[in-house]
Each structure stands twice: as structure tokens, then as C-alpha cells.
From TrEMBL:
<dbReference type="GO" id="GO:0004619">
    <property type="term" value="F:phosphoglycerate mutase activity"/>
</dbReference>
<comment type="similarity">
    <text>Belongs to the phosphoglycerate mutase family. BPG-dependent PGAM subfamily.</text>
</comment>
<protein>
    <recommendedName>
        <fullName>2,3-bisphosphoglycerate-dependent phosphoglycerate mutase</fullName>
        <ecNumber>5.4.2.11</ecNumber>
    </recommendedName>
</protein>
<feature type="binding site">
    <location>
        <begin position="89"/>
        <end position="92"/>
    </location>
    <ligand>
        <name>substrate</name>
    </ligand>
</feature>
<feature type="binding site">
    <location>
        <begin position="116"/>
        <end position="117"/>
    </location>
    <ligand>
        <name>substrate</name>
    </ligand>
</feature>
<feature type="binding site">
    <location>
        <position position="62"/>
    </location>
    <ligand>
        <name>substrate</name>
    </ligand>
</feature>
<feature type="site" description="Transition state stabilizer">
    <location>
        <position position="159"/>
    </location>
</feature>
<feature type="binding site">
    <location>
        <begin position="23"/>
        <end position="24"/>
    </location>
    <ligand>
        <name>substrate</name>
    </ligand>
</feature>
<feature type="active site" description="Proton donor/acceptor">
    <location>
        <position position="89"/>
    </location>
</feature>
<keyword id="KW-0324">Glycolysis</keyword>
<comment type="subunit">
    <text>Homodimer.</text>
</comment>
<comment type="function">
    <text>Catalyzes the interconversion of 2-phosphoglycerate and 3-phosphoglycerate.</text>
</comment>
<keyword id="KW-0413">Isomerase</keyword>
<dbReference type="InterPro" id="IPR005952">
    <property type="entry name" value="Phosphogly_mut1"/>
</dbReference>
<dbReference type="Pfam" id="PF00300">
    <property type="entry name" value="His_Phos_1"/>
</dbReference>
<feature type="binding site">
    <location>
        <position position="100"/>
    </location>
    <ligand>
        <name>substrate</name>
    </ligand>
</feature>
<dbReference type="InterPro" id="IPR029033">
    <property type="entry name" value="His_PPase_superfam"/>
</dbReference>
Length: 207
């Protein structure tokens, strides 16, 4: 099996996930459930016999805290951690901080659905998933992928949409396919890559 290991983990449940709010670049804490999800992810990765050389995360504390808890459970607290805005969640612009039901009441259910589920239509003042891909993917290609291909074991703790940007390429999904790709909070996805950066194997540890 390949030593080219890449593990992606969406942060644990945040306070705004719980309250059904659009979060984006806002910075709420993890809920107690989110803390448990992160710790469980660390236990699962340890049970798989995995260890890491370097970690990447976003500038947002829900992802950083998730990473810290995972590494604590694995006994790998001293690994180098690289934080970058390129891995931040999709920016929801004017929707940020709004309850999703309130947003539907203001703009209409169909319009909010388009903003949430279309690939290239951004909400007012925010990013589409296409915009998020344009931000996150070059960072992956320049900073993360070369390390994996050198044989470093890499853990990325980030967000649903910034991770979708990477998964779109890894799993060769279409824009329609990536919009349907669900990522559970705190559930690691383990990739082994071939020397040409294609996926040799994938294991999703979702419940």
C-alpha cells in the first residue's frame, strides 16, 4: 500500500451548525458534540495505525480546535501545523450569521437553495463553491500535494466546502457530483495516492 497518505477531516459540529446558521468565515466555537466528534476522529485514526508528519488547517478556530483535539487523542501534539486562509470555509457573504429559515423568508426558498446548492452562483457578497475551489485548489497543488508525493503523511482539518474543493479533484467529480458529496462533521476520509497524484484507495470513516 502507498506511503503517500492524505487524510481530510471536516471540523466537529460548531455552535452555529447547531443553531442552523450560515457560518462561512465567522468564527464560532465547537459544541460539546463537536469536541466529542473531534476526539472520536483522533481515536479512529489511531486505531487505523496512522501517524502524521505535518498538518494543515484553516484560519478559523473550529478547524484548528478540531485538529488540536485529534492530535491530542493520537498523542501527536508536537507536529508542525500550517494555518492558511486558503483552507477557510466558503464565504457566505450577506448570509453569514443568518438562520437558514430566516434567509428563506427574506430571499425565498428557491433563491437560497440556488445559493447553497449551485456550483457557480454566489450569495450576495460571498463565494460560490467554484470560487472556493479557485482559492483552495491552487494551495493544495502548491503546498499540500508535493508533501504527500514526497511520502510525508499529511492531515488536513478544514471545512465542508474547502475540503470539497480538494475532493472534487481527488475523486474526479463533476460540479454536479461535488455538490451532492456529503462530508460528516468529524469523520476522517483517508486517501492513499499513486505517484502520479491519482487516488490508489479511499476509506471514509463516517458513521
Amino acid at each position: 500500500m502507498s506511503d503517500r497518505l492524505l487524510v481530510l477531516v471536516r471540523h466537529g459540529q460548531s455552535e452555529w451548525n447547531l443553531k442552523n446558521l450560515f457560518t462561512g468565515w465567522r468564527d464560532p466555537d465547537l459544541t460539546p458534540r463537536g469536541v466529542d466528534e473531534a476526539r472520536k476522529a483522533g481515536k479512529r485514526l489511531k486505531a487505523e495505525g496512522l501517524s502524521f508528519d505535518v498538518c494543515f488547517t484553516s484560519d478559523l478556530k473550529r478547524a484548528q480546535d478540531t485538529l488540536d483535539l485529534i492530535l491530542e487523542e493520537m498523542g501527536e501534539d508536537n507536529l508542525p501545523v500550517i494555518c492558511d486562509q486558503a483552507l477557510n470555509e466558503r464565504d457566505y457573504g450577506d448570509l453569514s450569521g443568518l438562520n437558514k429559515d430566516d434567509a428563506r423568508a427574506k430571499w425565498g426558498e428557491e433563491q437560497v437553495h440556488i445559493w447553497r446548492r449551485s456550483y457557480d452562483v454566489p450569495p450576495p457578497g460571498g463565494e460560490s463553491l467554484k470560487d472556493t475551489v479557485a482559492r483552495a485548489l491552487p494551495y493544495y497543488v502548491k503546498e499540500i500535494l508535493p508533501r504527500v508525493l514526497r511520502g510525508e503523511r499529511v492531515l488536513v482539518a478544514a471545512h465542508g466546502n474547502s475540503l470539497r474543493a480538494l475532493i472534487m479533484v481527488l475523486e474526479k467529480l463533476t460540479p454536479d457530483g461535488i455538490m451532492k458529496r456529503e462530508l460528516n462533521t468529524g469523520a476522517p476520509v483517508i486517501y492513499r495516492l499513486n505517484a502520479d497524484s491519482t487516488v490508489e484507495s479511499v476509506l471514509d470513516l463516517a458513521d
